[in-house]
Structure prediction request, 304 residues.
Amino acid sequence: MTQSIEETRSEFIEKIGVMAQTDGLPRIAGRMLGLFVWDVEAIAFGDLAEQLQVSRGSISTATRILEERRLIKRVAKPGDRQDYFQLAENPYAKMLDYYAETLGHTQAEITDTIDRIPADETVIRARVTAYADFYKSMAGALGKIAKDLDRA
Amino acid sequence: MTQSIEETRSEFIEKIGVMAQTDGLPRIAGRMLGLFVWDVEAIAFGDLAEQLQVSRGSISTATRILEERRLIKRVAKPGDRQDYFQLAENPYAKMLDYYAETLGHTQAEITDTIDRIPADETVIRARVTAYADFYKSMAGALGKIAKDLDRA
DNA sequence: TCTTTTGTTTAATTAAGTTTGAACATACTG
DNA sequence: CAGTATGTTCAAACTTAATTAAACAAAAGA
Prediction:
């Protein structure tokens, strides 16, 4: 089975789009991420809409989401009024930071519950605490990888 | 603000239900998980439907999902035809295993793409490989925590 | 055997989230 | 200034996933 590089690229973009849904990203944002992982060159706002075959509104939403997660950055090009986008520096460290942050938030929510459990309910406190610790250790581990990636 | 333990329990269950959606669990499965984290005693199938105020069909689906992820186990009680459920042993290690497995699968998908990129496309290969490595390191880290939790 | 209980399956409904398209605001161009 | 290009916002349309309710199968009692 022979496949052109354009086909491989297109398949990759779609694949990342599907998988991104696992990470709580809309499909278009995932496809966009795949595109930016593949392409080195910055891409214009309008070209994104054309390449991904979606509305400009969707591009606006997806770029905002990816920017908020610090996975892409918006750049300017001299002589072109359009916004350009490209993958951010250390995008995977940023992604890990985001996960660690989310997990830390979850842990805080659970800890908030623990504080409301009467002290004499030792069994329940222990069980809920074990659950909170689980999120804590995950957040810690991912935060650590993020740091490792950052200095690479 | 004073709150009965029943209210705290109920809030906790709802809270986990909402947060579980982040993990790709249906809300009912998440609420059920919260319930099992809180309660030590095994709970009957019928009681689950009543306590969570959902249909028996939903209980069937949610228990299946949580069993597949090895987070709860189905147990029998002498003198009662109903199925009983309770939190599994080392549930958080199981949860981490599941995440690690999912991430490993994602990595494999990306690696599959790498194999189709022509060898002379060094830049693209490097970029996609960095993305695959990111999933690899995450899977590795979570797998490691899972082991640590298991021997605790 | 007939009825009841229990849990699963599936078709239909409901709810939730995504995507679009039009309206809008802003800035640029001639 | 008028017209065009650019990006955002938001209501509506669409899509997908979750939930229910009813039908079903299996097992237990009577």
